[in-house]
Specification:
Layout: H1 5-24, E1 49-61, E2 74-88, E3 92-105, E4 113-127, E5 131-143, E6 155-170, E7 175-188, E8 196-208, E9 213-226, E10 237-250, E11 254-267, E12 274-285, E13 291-303, H2 304-308, E14 335-348, E15 352-365, E16 373-387, E17 390-403, E18 409-422, E19 427-440, E20 447-459
Antiparallel strand pairs: 1-2, 1-20, 2-3, 3-4, 4-5, 5-6, 6-7, 7-8, 8-9, 9-10, 10-11, 11-12, 12-13, 13-14, 14-15, 15-16, 16-17, 17-18, 18-19, 19-20
Length: about 450
């Protein structure tokens, strides 16, 4: 049961803090495995921008617990508030995307609860091109046990807080440097072993090859200390080191972000150290004015915190679909060797659009109980504008997870259809039907669930 009054307070205070900074007066995405950001200074002062949607949703599910036998139906009432915030000033730059949802289980099968998600960053330019101070917060709902069904009893609130300064300095006409210090706090409402205090330091030497390309050398060290771990069961502390070169380029039709180097992690209590390559590649290719292709590949040391640090993306924030998404990240103190590749194709026509996203991942755990697994699958969505104010949407997914510890396999299949109607410039409604099913080689882990969800919402 997620009694998350604290969550509502946290998100509200974060939003107020961002708004207050804007009234007194950005941030680029961090590396995939590094919650350190480099600000792109704003060239002009712009007024703060705040957009929001308030919705009242109703859901009926025929299997609230997602169990194999004796399913229980439930009716759910869900008031929601979703918002985006963007302020680019000369002193304060801030961006946030968030959602707060109150879930009322009308038959009382679970206790009513607050849940939410937030991705927010704030940068204070203390001295232009010399000293910045960064504050970030990432809150999401994640499973307690990824091997079990995604029922409300198997969900928890997870939060990552990051803060610290960035010092910029010149090293000559062609080179510049950056030094980062970050304090990182991680908490989970149920998996207390995930709670940790972290300190991160980084030194970067950057050479601008042109106005659209740069090359950098990077050294990073992070010390992790978990608060609630029995040293006889798992590693209490570890230190990770990353050394790599990074090339970034932004062209008219192609963006590239490539990193190559090495990593090492040293565990406490005389546990074995691990080292290996650090390889990351992200390519975004704008094929035409209506279509794009994105490729992401990695071979690196990884943990839960790195996966949860997802900076706000205002261009993809879906205020017209104010529903909370539950993640699939393993919440644990484990460190993994992560090898993965993701492809994403997007097409947006005048009336028809679709996305196609296949992926493959291979995780091998380096410490603690074995959560190693392989995963592959594909997710696709499509939308069609039936009339100027009426849109039909379809989504399908097929994902397979194989666990190395017992050689078990889960195959998750989902599909759904939704209809959205805009009534006025501010008022809209949407109704959706979805099916979620799992076939598992483990007895009692499969299930089937059908949902109907309707929402009426107001967007500013």
């Amino acid at each position: 049961m997620l009694r998350q009054g604290r969550l509502a307070s946290t998100i509200t205070l974060a939003l107020v803090g961002l708004s207050g900074g804007a009234l007194a007066q950005t941030y680029t995405p961090p590396d995939q495995a590094n919650p350190v950001s480099t600000l792109v200074p704003a060239t002009t002062q712009t007024p703060p921008f705040f957009d929001y949607a308030i919705g009242l949703g109703y859901e009926h599910t025929d299997n609230i617990d997602r169990v194999t036998t004796n399913p229980t139906g439930q009716d759910i009432l869900q008031p929601t508030l979703s918002f985006t915030f963007n302020q680019q000033g000369s002193t304060i730059q801030a961006q946030a995307v968030g959602l707060i949802q109150y879930t009322d289980y009308l038959q009382g099968y679970f206790g009513n609860e607050f849940r939410g998600q937030l991705s927010g960053v704030l940068n204070w330019t203390i001295s232009p091109q010399r000293l910045n101070f960064d504050v970030e917060d990432y809150s999401s709902v994640q499973p307690v046990d990824t091997r079990r069904s995604n029922s409300p009893a198997n969900q928890q609130q997870v939060n990552i807080f990051v803060s610290g300064p960035t010092l910029s300095f010149k090293l000559g006409n062609a080179l510049r440097g950056e030094a980062d210090l970050r304090y990182i706090n991680t908490t989970a409402s149920k998996t207390k072993a995930f709670n940790s205090q972290r300190g991160l330091g980084a030194l970067r030497v950057i050479r601008d090859l042109s106005t659209t390309a740069s090359l950098s050398g990077n050294f990073e060290a992070v010390n992790v200390d978990f608060n609630n771990i029995d040293p006889l069961i798992n590693t209490q502390r570890y230190t990770e080191y990353n050394v790599y070169a990074r090339y970034q380029s932004q062209l008219a039709h192609l963006d590239m972000d490539l990193a190559l180097g090495g990593s090492q992690v040293d565990f406490s209590h005389d546990s074995s150290s691990h080292s290996g390559a650090l390889v990351r590649a992200a390519l975004a290719w704008r094929l035409t004015s209506r279509s794009s292709l994105q490729v992401n590949a990695s071979d690196q040391l990884d943990d839960s915190t790195a996966n949860l640090v997802q900076p706000p993306n205002l261009t993809t924030a879906m205020l017209t679909d104010p529903t909370l998404q539950v993640g699939r990240t393993v919440i644990s103190p484990a460190v993994f060797r992560d090898r993965s590749v993701n492809l994403g194709y997007l097409y947006r026509g005048p009336r028809f659009g679709f996305t196609l996203t296949p992926y493959y991942s291979r995780l091998r755990q380096l410490n603690g109980s074995d959560l190693s697994r392989n995963g592959h699958g594909v997710v696709a969505t499509a939308s069609y504008l039936i009339r100027p104010l009426l849109t039909l949407g379809v989504n399908v997914g097929d994902q397979t997870t194989e666990y190395t510890s017992d050689h078990s396999r889960d195959r998750d299949r989902t599909y759904g259809v939704n209809l959205t109607r805009q009534l006025t410039p501010h008022w809209s409604w949407s109704i959706a039907f979805s099916h979620d099913g799992r076939h598992s080689t483990r007895s009692g882990f499969g299930y089937n669930e059908n949902q109907v969800f309707a929402i009426l919402y107001y967007r500013r």
